[in-house]
Amino acid sequence: MEWSYRTAGELVSALRAGAVTSGELTDEAIARIERDDEVVNAICVPDFDRARAAARRADQARARGEDRPLLGVPVTVKESYDIAGLPTTWGMPPYRDFMPVEDAVQVSRIKAAGAVVLGKTNVPLGLQDIQSFNGIYGTTTNPWDHARTPGGSSGGSAAALASGFGALSIASDIAGSLRTPAHFCGVYAHKPTLGLAANRGMVAPSEPALPVDLDLAVVGPMARTARDLTLLLDVMAGPDPLTRGVAYRLALPPPRHERLGDFRVLVLEEHPLIPTGAAVRAGVNRVAAALADGGARVERHSPLLPDLTEAATLYTQLLVSGSVARFPVESDEQLRTRVAGLSAADQSLDAARRRAMVFSHRDWMEANNRREVHRHGWRQLFTEFDAVVCPITPTPAFPHDHHPDPLERRIDIDGVDYPYFDQLVWAGLATMPGLPATAIPAGRSPEGLPVGVQLIGPMSEDRTPLRLAELLEPKTGGFQAPKQRVARTGRP
């Protein structure tokens, strides 16, 4: 029997029943990676010897009567997480030999739950792209079309899941880095509420692995089913034992509803700053139709929705100012000269990005104060609705674009070019206020590419969008393995 595309839940049941061993699952996963990953290039740092040893320990533990949530299940880990004995580079060549001595807190948690780590998955340089390529490990391709990106920055994890390389993956998200690869590769992902899951050890190699409260960024699960997302989130969620975990314990509330017909959902398909491509619009409408067919209350407009233009601007300001503070792109003098040349009338997102590169602390505080106003607006909206359905990006996976200046790249939306990073407005809708968002498959484009949507839920009520994703799964088709098997044609 082939196990590679079984869900994590099915693997746990089979392991408990004695139908398969962890050693057998791990050997099958490794064989598939060795056979198929040459062109996909999802697993940039294999750890097969230690995986086989962990599988043996899992089988021995089960023979002793032990039972943990992920005992014996093969998984992958995004390269940006520290794993003792493996390099953590974030795709940055100066750190190709950096070797952490301690596991990230989330790696420790999945190992304690019994997971077997197959290796690390590829990322873009500094986790700063909507694609996954770097000068150390090369380019990860989309399993559905090798000429296209699997997304970023968790593109390696999404490509691995779509290729059957492990049942689960842990990744991260600040600009759709969980949701966009899931959308591009046809898998599931969950961006948790900001701060819900401890992030220590998911840190650039230039920085110490401290229990820092990050702004915007989260760590979260990826899987091939909605139920598996919940299984992995339950392992990941909770405060860092070095800080809030000293005094607090997590108790996530149950989902607001258990039946599809009880949900109240706001559906959005258009953004004022960038059009939605026909394929993604069709995916949003497929989900809307499935909701209506299941008896849910579906609305298309609400006066309670926070202003989308201001939300996108605030997100851009917070994202770019934080990014440039950590990874300077030019000297401060050069940046200020560029910004001084902008017209005061230019209120485009591109202008907002450039201005945010020279933000003062006062500028950031003003943006942060406006964010709190938006958060309160979302609280009010979620008194009338249980979830918001909307795009993740305006298009399915796009062709590889390795132009050295990302600000010069363009995204083609139904034949018209737009600034590359403007496509982040939909990801920022949940990221800026720190809301949970679950990415789900929503069918295929006319070219056969996966299309996904996100279900945004109320803050700290992560089980609500996760439960909605689970209820929608049989109606929207869920995960499907790529129809065209991986060919040995080399990497771009």
UniProtKB/TrEMBL annotation:
Q: Which GO terms describe its molecular function?
A: amidase activity
Query: Where does the Amidase domain lie?
Result: 24-464
Q: Give the UniProt entry's GO cellular component terms.
A: endomembrane system
Q: Which domain of life is it from?
A: Bacteria
Cite the Gene3D superfamilies for this sequence.
Amidase signature (AS) domain (3.90.1300.10)
Is Membrane one of the keywords?
A: no
Keywords from UniProt, A to Z, are: Hydrolase
| Name of this protein | Amidase
**Native organism:** Amycolatopsis vastitatis
